[in-house]
UniProtKB/TrEMBL annotation:
One GO CC term, this protein: alpha DNA polymerase:primase complex
Chief location category: nucleus
Compositionally biased residues, Polar residues: 77-105, 114-126
Molecular function (Gene Ontology), one example: DNA binding
Entry-linked Pfam families: DNA_pol_E_B, OB_DPOA2, Pol_alpha_B_N
Domain DNA polymerase alpha subunit B N-terminal intervals: 6-48
Family, per entry: Belongs to the DNA polymerase alpha subunit B family.
Official protein name in the record: DNA polymerase alpha subunit B
Annotated keywords: DNA replication, Nucleus
Annotated region described as Disordered, given as residue ranges: 77-132
Domain DNA polymerase alpha/delta/epsilon subunit B, chain residue ranges per copy: 294-500
Organism of origin: Denticeps clupeoides (denticle herring)
Gene3D superfamilies: 3.60.21.60, DNA polymerase alpha-primase, subunit B, N-terminal domain
Occurrences of domain DNA polymerase alpha subunit B OB (ranges): 183-286
Amino acid sequence: CVCFVVLEQCMCHRLKGDELVCEWVAFSTTKGLLSLSLENLEQFEHEVKDYTILHSSRWFLGLRNFAEEDEENLLDSYSTPAKGSQKRALSTPENPQSKRSTARLTSPGLLSPATFSPCATPSQKYSGRGSRGEVVSTFGTVQGPRWSVPKGRRSASVDQLMSTEDSLLSSYKFMFQRLRDVRDVLSENIDGLGEELRLHFNIEEFSPVSLPAQDKVTVLGQVCCDSNGKLNAQSVLLEAGQEHGGRQVPVDLSELNEFSLFPGQVVIMEGMNTTGNKLVASKLYEVSSEPVMVMTVCGPYTPSDSLAYDPLIDLINVINRDRPDVCILFGPFVDSKHEQIEKCQVTETFESIFNRCVDSLVEGTREIGSKLVFVPSQRDVHHHYVYPQPPFTIPDLSKKDVERVTLVSDPCTLLVDGVTFGLTSTDILLHMGAEMISSAVGSDRFSRIMKHLLTQRSYYPLYPPAEEVNMDYEKFQSYGHMPINPDVLVVPSELRYFIKARGTVL
């Protein structure tokens, strides 16, 4: 009888009547409103059993972790902390030579190091550095390393390229994406970019990647690796989109004179696949990539050994001296990798430190009227740790300052007086350089990486992403691609600085 079976399940799993009813309603709803029968109750019992086992194991695991943590704290109290070497994070260059000049600021009280943190002490390494304001890299014919804009010059306009509906303007829930949603985004990216490439190369149609054929075939897919290791010439797989079956096939690159591939790259290949089990590629289709005074600056804005914002103070002096139309400031502003922040050696909130940075920049440049663009970073400890990253929120700006300050997401495409700027603070150069394989001759690695970014129409085409990047692919589909090739692409990196031109893109 159904009643006896229900009663038995309540006793076996220690459930109350109302709890069992809730479990049954949830179970039957997911299965399409099943009827209450003995067969369905048997299936229901298995799921309830698995559910109770899972939650009981999590409960015991939590107790075990709690006990181990108490034991470690007890042992640590009887020992002396060891001094271990720590890896230094990216910071301001330190070259001790000349003495530090006096900051030329209109409001020194607001911008002094003590206003950022009471425990901050001036950095000796930073104050003794040399080569202040030195131009380290130039492009084209330069008459002199310094330039300035006349006082009477009109102010530049700063606009986001995408409309308000298409821009990332607020926070959103993340960590809820499903694997099938990731698959759909990647498949749509393959099909969308593949259609553009098909029209560009006048290709009639693509063949399925795993279909045996005795003649040469042209296939479209995404590059991936056959294991969790680093991609190499023997581990390349080509995965088709859902429109072409979604199958994977190994790729033999031995017949290609040169190639440059990375995981996640959408490519068109031509070759032989006589068995359907391996594509011997003979051709890789390559797409050839088709001034306002703007200053770009990248954080962190503190020395590595202090939380005193002396570099930020000097930056404001440089802005006042050079008077750029637009100053684009990349995070991190409150660096999560700073030693004192990692050890929680601050006496105020991270948001308070960030607000002081913004107030200093806005007030310190108010007289010259330069437009300020703030780009967040995933290393900003006070901001959302996700990519794409929503813009900062600065609620206390005056009406005049709001007209001068632009808050953008990471990444974003910005239009500055008709010149398109592509901006991202995430270190895609370092991440892609660590994963990319290439046999190209006559071109450097940075040029190849920049070519990939532009031809893939994406600010972060690498898949899987680096471990430090918390990628949300549903939002990435909307906010992570380049709507057009920018005139200027700015990508801060831990790698050595450079200025290069790729086609029409600087």
